Amino acid sequence: MDSQNSELTAETEAGDEPIAGTVFNARQVRLLKIAVIIMGILLVGGFAFVMSAIVYQASHLGQSEPEPVSLDRAADRPLAPEIALPVGSGTTVSGMTLDGRRMAVQLDGPNGSEIAVIDLGSGRVVSRIRLQAK
After folding, report:
1. Is the pTM for the entire model greater than 0.70?
2. Burial 32-53 (b: 16+ CB within 10 A, else e)
3. In 3D, which of 79, 134, 130 has the Cα closest to residue 109?
């Protein structure tokens, strides 16, 4: 039995010796090769997944139809509240901007220009900003 133990010890010690010209032994080199192969497979698979996702998204552009505006059939009117913005006679809308749930309306009239900020959820005018020349 001692001869078998000495043979196993000799094989183990031989496997732990560094390969000539390196600091790595045969077992470490084998594990490194396996790690490199696995990482290469993951890279190629990830690249293929990203490319297939791009192709899928590109092939489905423009295919979704816009949702129709739903009407409250009982009252035959839109579900959104109607917003009344009181303005003077001869006033025109020269621009509008949306920001989330608020809309800024630029009004030009005979009494000067102003900006009305409207909360679209409630339909009320949050503020009015009168523009004055310096």
Report:
1. no
2. eeeeeeeeeeeeeeeeeeeeee
3. 130
